[in-house]
Amino acid sequence: MQDNNAILPESDLQNMSALALAYIGDAVYELLARTAVCKTGKRTAESLHTATVSIVQAPAQARFARRIISLLKEDEQAVLRRGRNARVRAVPRGASFEEYHLATAIEALFGYLYLKGETARVKELFEAATAPDTED
């Protein structure tokens, strides 16, 4: 069933590469991170940036991906696997191969859900992933 808010039909999402989904998901994830950081109160631009980077860097995204795996529906797990298995050309300094693949996976998932129109689900998963009382 396609959500009325869907940006793309499911058939297009299934044909889209995992890296294209991750490209969109990167922007979605960053916007959620920036919003979460801004909710913490008044800060300088530098402290906002530093706090955001701590959430969006690959090791953090990998940690967050591990936290939400058990919460994912079957189609979401499939997208996460597609993202994790995507062939990336380079791994950024400061991240392991595994961390970068998991970071790509969570971005692909967020991109998929956003394009599917499931923004409430994206927010729900982001909040579960980044909750401070969640154990690793």
Question: Please, could you describe this protein's structure?
Answer:
This protein has helices at 10-15, 18-38, 45-56, 58-68, 74-84, 97-116, 119-130. The protein has one domain (10-130): Ribonuclease III domain (Ribonuclease iii, N-terminal Endonuclease Domain, Chain A), CATH 1.10.1520.10. The longest helix has 21 residues, at 18-38. 32% of the residues are buried. The mean pLDDT is 88. Helix 2 (18-38) packs across helix 6, helix 4 (58-68) crosses helix 6 (97-116) and helix 4 packs across helix 7. It contains 7 helices and no strands. The radius of gyration is 15 Å and the shape is globular. The termini are far apart. The chain has 136 residues and is mainly α.
Write a brief caption for the model:
The chain has 136 residues and is mainly α.
Name given to the CATH homologous superfamily: Ribonuclease III domain
The largest pleated sheet is described as:
none
Averaged pLDDT, please? 88
Count up the domains: 1
Number of helices: 7
Percent of sequence in beta strands: under 5%
What's the CATH topology label? Ribonuclease iii, N-terminal Endonuclease Domain, Chain A
**Distance between the ends:** 33 Å
